[in-house]
Each structure stands twice: as C-alpha cells, then as structure tokens.
Design goal:
GO terms for molecular function: metal ion binding; tRNA (guanine(26)-N2)-dimethyltransferase activity; tRNA binding. It is an enzyme of class 2 (transferase). Residues 54-90, 102-123, 560-579 are annotated as: Disordered. Helix 1 (33-74) crosses helix 4 (93-105), helix 1 (33-74) packs across helix 15 and helix 10 packs across helix 13. The chain has 3 domains: 8-51 and 127-310 and 373-403, Rossmann fold; 316-369, no CATH class; 416-511, Phenylalanyl-tRNA Synthetase, Chain B, domain 1, CATH 3.30.56.70. Helix 6 links the parallel strand 5 (131-133) and strand 6 (155-159). It is built from 23 helices and 19 strands.
C-alpha cells in the first residue's frame, strides 16, 4: 500500500478495519455499530434459512424421482420418448430427464451433495448469496459482511461520490486478501445500477443519509425471489409527524403525533415498500423491524406472485386518533368474503368510529395508510437471538442488540401500535398504577398484553379502548383525583360509570420472562453525543459541539490550524524575503 497512514486514523469494528481521514470527507458514524451488528445477525439467519429452503425443495424433487425412474425402467426407449408429455405436467422436461438419470445411475448423489439442484439440462449448485450495498461510503459495512458472515458470496459496494469510492477501495486493500476477493467497489448511481440488474442480488442493503424513498422502486426490482431487502430510514422528524405533508409526498402515508409515532414510522416504511413491490407483481414478508437510536430499520423478504399480491389491502389500515384522549382505532382498507371455494376481495367496512369519540366526545385525526399486519417473524427473531447469544464475542454491540431482540421476542405480533400508561394517566390527571398492576387488570379481564421494544413505557394489548378506560375508571375510584374543568377530556371520561369491574389482583403473566429473570431490555447510550453525525463533505465548526462533542470538534479544528500553519511555513521557505 502506498497510502501514508500518518494522515489517517485506523478504526476497527468487528473484524474489519478502515482508514478515516481527519477531515469529514467520507461519512462514518460510530453509532451505527448497532445497525451493522443486527444486519450481520439477520444476514447469517437468512443464509441458513435459504439453505434450509433449498434442501426442502431438493428433497421434494427426490420424492418424485423414483416414480419417474420406475416408469422409465419398465418401458422401452421408444415408449419413454412417446410418454414424455405425461411427465411434463408437473416438472419441466429437463428436470424430469435429469431426475430420472440421477435415480437410475447415482441414487446417493443427492444426499451426498445437498447443495445441488436439478434445473434445465444439468445440475446447478446453490450459489453463495450476492449482496449489494447500495450506498457504501467508507465500505465498512461491506467489509464486515465479507469478513464476518460465513457462506457469503460477492459483495458489491456502490457510491456515486468519487472520494467515497476511492476510500472504499483503499479500505478493501487495507483489509487483505479475503476482502479483495469478495468485495468490489464501483462509482455508480445506485438507482441506475439496481434498475439495470433486475433480480440479480439475493440481498440488497439500503442505508442512506436521510430518506430511502427514492431508492425503493429500483431496490424491489433488483432482489431475487425470496431475497432480502434491508432498509434504513433516518428522517424520523418526517416519519413521526413533524412534517406530515412531506411524509405523504415521500412515503404515501400521513403520520400522526401519538406516543406510538416511532412504531407508526416503521409501519409507514413497510407500507411504502409494499406499494413499490406491488407495481411489479411482488409483495413483502417482514422478518424483523427495529426502531433504534435515531432511525428505523426493516428487514423484508420479497416474493413474486400476482395472486398473493391481492392480499395487500388486508395488510393495510388507516388510523383514527382522538385529539382529546389519544384513543386510536384502525380501519382496514380491504376485506375478503369466502364463497364455496372462491374468495372475493372487497373494500373494508367503515367507518370504524363515529364523528366524535365515544369516550371523551372530541374529534378524530386520520392518518395512514400503515402496515397493520405483523412486522416481525417470531421464528426468525428466536433464531437470530439464539445465534447472537451463541457468538456474543463477535458482536461489538452485543448488549444493545440482544436487549432489543429479547424485547421484540416478547411483543404481541398481531397488535399494531401501543398504549402509553403515562399518557392515559395524564389525560385523567391521576396517579399512575404500576405497569404490573395495569397488566394484571388487562389479563384478568381476559385480554393479552405485552411490552414493546420501541418505548419502555409502551404497552401492546388486544383489549379495546372502552375496556382500557373502564380499567382506568376503576383505578381512579380507588385513587381519587382533584375536580377538573367540565370540558376536559378526563372529566368526560370519568363522568361515565365503568361497565367492566377491573380486577387488580396480580396475574401470573403480568411480568414477561425477561423481566422475571431481570434481563436488561432498555440500555442507556454507551457515551455522550451518541446520535446522528454531519453529512460527509460539510466543514466541522464550533457550532457542531452539541452534535459531535467538544473533543471531536477541537481535534478537527486543531488539525486544520496545524495544516494551515505548515502551509504558511512551507510558502515562506519556498519564497524567502529578500534582504
């Protein structure tokens, strides 16, 4: 390497090392170690799942192979040719011919070579998955994939910034032969590259600075059937309702400012990806959706099926949120009606709410549409969590990602959005019951309840809002509040007698398994200024101390002063003043 290492700082993360210049030339954020670690964990699970699915398809073919071989052995060569059309009904011509040959001549070859599948006129191995990192910057993520994920294939790192591509290629060389053989860096527009390489990548990773909306249309086209799309959105102010009209223009959905706004951001992103996929007769299956730090990250598998795509309206809903008491209700977009063996797809029944809230009498805000189907696959989550625990030393952010995955594994998968116990009490102006007491009351009423990884105070429950408010009315009867103005939402709610008599006796399931074992679920940031960083290329000045911290800013400013002083000194030496 001809690079002068004195100009760079060596940053090590996992098994990868990168060279970072003192100036803010190429984007790097230490905080995203959580993002990269959880992506590696999901990628490992995907490779394992892909292998299992391949072996399942292979074993399915072996079951039909003996039938074909028996038929071929009993007939003459002429009859075999004439009866080909009967065999083609379930398999392609090439498939059946090869399957027959395998069953007659090499009956053990399939069990000995599980990574091969019969397609066309020959055997095709299950190739290692190809990965596209569409916005690579320094290439740290691509290098970690190549060096840490077993069984991974080629990793293509793209960037449309020349300085970033040079830095990425420099880092590839710096990481040795493994990185050089697996990672390739290109100067290209990610959108154009994905559009010109349809269904070529098993995994596509989108981690832009800001919104991923402009990349989604091309990304859903470049993933193979059953492939994995990993997508990050960091424009949380937009997704959480700070600029609703901007969110609608980018994602096609209107956000609401509720306590559940971060989970709603996840569901808006999923609905947007589904919308782009549907245009090409494709649909998504979420395996993991995470809100961490200052961003949301979703992992979805993409499949092609015109018939399965018809179920999309069943997975989307509008949200009605009361402006007085923050009660929310979901309005599904579509429904199905089964008649004999056929299924009809119809518009959803509505409205699910009257003009005024039944609990407090105020109006509703309407948001959405959002993804209202499950946002996690619990089988995947369990598998990823066990994998992370089995190799904790290989994850720099093990404590954080294991805590998040543990909480996700205990969420109710079929309950969209969540309640905030403190918000309910703020509406009624009452003291708050403990989470255990409130959970017990919900469970004793015959409903389910769990926590959420998005908010330590959030509670997911399938109990309707009238039951929730009845429980709170019973709580207030035992813990009276001061009189409030009659127009207040809390006053209107408490004026009604509870229909349900709440039972606050402690229920067995009021604590989750993680809480019972006292497993940490919500961890503090490991250091100060743990958050978003400046976009690459922007000059770091003293006004960025609150974002980057005084040490980082002073270090950059001192480095620039030294460079300026050295430049002046060199100029004086080159052009001395005459006597």
């Amino acid at each position: 390497m001809t690079t002068d290492l004195s100009d760079y700082a060596i940053i090590k993360e996992g098994e990868a090392e990168i060279l970072m210049h003192a100036k803010n030339q190429v984007f790097y954020n230490k905080t995203q170690v959580n993002n990269r670690d959880i992506s590696i964990a999901v990628l490992r699970a995907f490779i394992e799942k892909r292998k299992e699915e391949h072996e399942a398809r292979l074993s399915k073919k072996t079951k039909t192979a003996p039938k074909v071989s028996e038929k071929d052995a009993s007939n003459s060569v002429v009859e075999e040719v004439s009866n080909e059309s009967d065999i083609i009904d379930e398999k392609t011509n090439g498939d059946c011919e090869v399957a027959a040959e395998i069953s007659q001549e090499e009956p053990c070859s399939i069990s000995q070579e599980p990574n091969k599948v019969t397609e066309g006129k020959g055997q095709v191995e299950l190739k290692p998955p190809r990965v596209l990192e569409a916005l690579s910057a320094s290439g740290l993520r691509a290098l970690r994939y190549a060096r840490e994920v077993e069984g991974i294939g080629q990793v293509v790192a793209l960037d449309n910034d020349k300085v970033s591509v040079e830095a990425c290629r420099r880092n590839i060389k710096f990481n040795g032969s493994v990185a050089c053989s697996k990672v390739e860096s290109h100067l290209a527009d990610a959108r154009v590259h994905m559009l010109t390489h349809p269904k070529e990548f098993d995994v596509v990773d989108l981690d832009p600075y800001g919104s991923p909306s402009v990349f989604l249309d091309s990304a859903v086209q470049s993933v193979v059937d059953g492939g994995l799309l990993m997508c990050t959105a960091t424009d949380m102010a937009v997704l959480c309702g700070g600029n609703g009209e901007v969110c609608y223009s980018k994602y096609g959905s209107y956000p609401l400012r509720g306590k559940y706004c971060h989970e709603m951001a996840l569901r808006i992103l999923l609905a947007c990806i589904e919308s782009h996929a549907n245009r090409y007769k494709r649909y998504i299956v979420p395996v993991l959706s995470v809100q961490m730090d200052f961003y949301v990250r979703v992992f979805v598998r993409i499949y092609s099926s015109a018939s399965a795509m018809k179920n999309t309206p069943l997975k989307l809903s509008y949200v009605y949120q009361c402006i007085g008491c923050d009660s929310f209700h979901l309005q599904p977009i579509g429904r199905t009606v089964a008649k004999n063996s056929s299924v009809r797809y119809l518009p959803g029944f509505g409205p699910v709410v009257p003009q005024e809230c039944n609990d407090c009498g105020k109006k509703f805000n309407m948001g959405g549409p959002i993804w209202s189907a499950p946002i996690h696959d619990q089988e995947w989550v369990t598998s990823i969590l066990s994998d992370v625990k089995s190799m904790k030393e290989r994850y720099p952010a093990y404590d954080r990602i294991s805590a998040v995955l543990t909480t996700i594994s205990e969420e109710l998968p079929d309950v969209p959005l969540f309640l905030s116990l403190h918000n309910l009490c703020a509406t009624l102006k009452c003291t708050s019951p403990s989470a255990v007491i409130f959970r017990s009351a919900v469970i004793n009423a015959g409903y389910r309840i769990s926590g959420t990884h998005v908010n330590p105070l959030g509670l997911k429950s399938d109990a309707p809002m009238n039951v929730i408010w009845d429980i709170m009315r019973c709580w207030v009867k035992n813990h009276p509040v001061k009189p409030q103005p009659p127009e207040q939402s809390g006053t209107v709610i408490l004026a009604k007698e509870p229909v349900l008599q709440a039972n606050f006796a402690r229920a067995v399931a009021s604590l989750s398994k993680a809480q019972t074992k006292k497993v940490a679920r919500f961890l503090p940031n490991p250091e100060r200024h743990w958050g978003p960083k400046l976009r690459a290329g922007r000059q770091i000045t003293s006004k960025h101390i609150s974002l980057l911290g005084p040490d980082a800013v002073n270090g950059v400013l001192n480095h620039e002063e030294d460079e300026e002083h050295n430049a002046k000194r060199q100029k004086i030496e080159d052009h001395p003043t005459p006597n």
